[in-house]
Amino acid sequence: MCDASKPVELLAWYDRNARDLPWRVSPADRASGVVPDPYAVWLSEIMLQQTTVAAVRDYFTRFLSLWPTVAALAAAEDDRVMGEWAGLGYYARARNLLKCARVVANDGAFPETREGLQALPGIGPYTSAAIAAIAYDLPETVVDGNVERVMARLFHVTTPLPDAKPELKRLAATLTPENRPGDYAQAVMDLGATICTPRSPSCGICPWNRHCLARREGDQADLPARKPKTKKPTRYGIVYLARNPSGEWLAERRPDTGLLGGMLGWPGAPWDDVAVAAPPFEADWIDPGIEVRHTFTHFHLRLSLRVVDVGHKVEPKVGQFQDIRASDLPTVMRKAFHAARSIVSH
What we know:
Layout: H1 5-17, H2 27-31, H3 38-48, H4 53-66, H5 70-74, H6 78-85, H7 91-107, H8 114-118, H9 125-136, H10 145-154, H11 165-173, H12 181-194, H13 213-217, E1 234-243, E2 249-253, E3 264-265, E4 291-295, E5 300-309, E6 320-322, H14 331-344
Parallel strand pairs: 1-5
Antiparallel strand pairs: 2-3, 2-6, 4-5
């Protein structure tokens, strides 16, 4: 059962303080009958997974200008979409974005239930609940990192994350209202993003400050508790960048599964504790002493470059020579490309 007073208070705050986001229908517009576009809601939610609003704004605007409908995105070339995605990370999301767009375009519309949405590629429990609530105003409980923080403080949950997740979701569900659930879902996320922030929460202006048990105990800044982080390991690799007389570069398509799956990349060694790899063909490869560094979710990567400007036709063991644009590449491969071009241009 919903605790009725808290959602009413939060929605009143949201009506005055809602963030202006390019994928959002404002409370005033929604009240006047403007209906959110499920495509825009879905696209933003996929982009926002494990990424910040600040990082997503420009990507979302660019994607919507390039592909204004789900049908347009479904018809797009994979490499173009992957290239535009570069920098957002988690490329499996981009692959599933295309898969999902093609299923929806084939079906004619997005499903209008959480269960139907969750059956689509790349849509899990959180995303299905968020789309169902925001796009269709269904009373689904939406719990992201911001909401977890708000609930941990509001109800004074001291169990560390991630163990506390089930309890926080259960508590969040007790507040999900039947009235304006889409606005409410966005209101809780806005509250966490702007008021109930990770450090130095602005409790004095919080619409829930009189209800907050953590504030009463004086330990709101310490919640949610978290287990100690483990140190990220460092992996090493070698990439071989070769340019032929036509200005084409030797590239290969990475396997569909795994990190950067399905993306273009440079031949090289597996990313491991020690990098060892045979070159894709015999040549006078240059070791410029340049190392490209990149950090993924679970590890740091250090890639050593080997570069050659080929003056004759060669038969590589892997990959093929092709025209390469930096925008075709994921971020770490793009870093290597920029470094290699500065070498062979001299």
